[in-house]
Design brief:
alpha+beta; Rossmann fold; 2 domains; seven-stranded mixed β-sheet; three-stranded antiparallel β-sheet; 8 helices
Length: 306
């Protein structure tokens, strides 16, 4: 889906092996989607050189990622990659022993409806109240401007509700997804999960007004078709990141949707409400009506109905 939309915007995509060659000079945006192994020193050096010369990069780091070496690269731009994962927590109906009871539900899926309204990537998402969703997302924060690079940046996406929390036992949680986690003593949400930063090139480029642009997101799955089909804002967020990084801000918008399967995604509290409303509404109405009739007849006393 995303590949088709990128082609419609006249973007061409191509794989790149940094172990074999430098980033091509005509590369508008270098996308690093969820690396699963550490980068070799030569690869790190080539990424750093590309950014130093005014390149733009979109770095997507899943919480299950090992230390890739990119953590130190983005840290130079004031971006901190946290070794944690956001856990969403809500109260709702929980199945147990063939029945249901009201209890706490925990999920690795965190929604975002809070954005930095001043940033071009997410301004439309904020103004139109469009949600994005992240399955297994880590915290990404901005520590402040780097005086050496004259770098500026800001968190742009905040995921998780006020009852969400972050855990550091990520590998254990991924091995046992149904395990419940204690929120005691842990930071609570919403959490910054994406940061955008800019800086002048640190080496001369000969291009007037050139800028290094960097976006770091704590999840790579949000751009997959599986998650995109659930949250309409994910496509917009991903494409807006690409267009901002390539300095095509005129293309930043809420994009049209292709027809297809669009499931309704609800929070636990919304699901509980719909269950109670649909299943218990009519029995409750009959019960209340019967109770009112009984009370009416009782208040009139025997023999007063005629």
């Amino acid at each position: 889906m995303l590949a088709n939309l990128l082609r419609q915007l006249n973007y061409a995509t191509a794989p790149l092996k940094l172990i074999d060659s430098d980033v091509p000079p005509d590369c508008a945006v270098l996308v690093i989607p969820g690396p699963k192994a550490p980068f070799a020193p030569v690869e790190i050096s080539r990424i750093e050189r590309y950014l130093a010369e005014g390149g733009s990069a979109l770095v997507l780091l899943d919480p299950d990622s090992i230390e890739t070496g990119l953590e130190n690269v983005v840290a130079r731009w004031g971006v901190v990659v946290h070794p944690n994962m956001v856990i969403e927590r809500q109260r709702g109906l929980v199945p147990y022993a063939g029945g249901l009871y009201m209890g706490e539900q925990q999920s690795m899926y965190a929604r975002a409806m809070k954005y930095e309204p001043s940033h071009a990537i997410v301004a439309d998402l904020e103004s139109k109240g469009i949600a994005t969703g992240f399955y297994q997302v880590r915290e990404i924060t901005w520590t402040g401007a780097n005086p050496t690079l004259a770098c500026t940046g800001t968190p742009i996406v905040f995921a998780g509700s006020r009852t969400s929390f972050a855990i550091t036992e990520v590998k254990e949680a991924l091995r046992n997804p149904r395990q419940a986690h204690s929120a005691e003593g842990k930071p609570s949400g919403p959490f910054s999960v994406a940061v955008a930063a800019t800086a002048p090139p640190s080496v001369p480029t000969g291009v007037e007004g050139a800028k290094t642009r960097l976006v770091v997101v704590g999840d790579a799955d949000f751009a997959t078709d599986r998650v995109v089909s659930q949250e309409r804002g994910n496509v917009d967020f991903m494409l807006n990141c690409i267009t901002w990084l390539s300095e095509d801000e005129d293309l930043i918008t809420i994009h049209s949707r292709e027809p297809g399967y669009k499931p309704i995604v609800m929070t636990a509290s919304q699901g509980t409400f719909m269950f109670l409303f649909c299943v218990w509404r009519y029995p409750a109405m009959v019960f209340v009506a019967g109770l009112l009739i009984w009370w009416y007849r009782r208040s009139r006393g025997p023999g007063k109905d005629n």
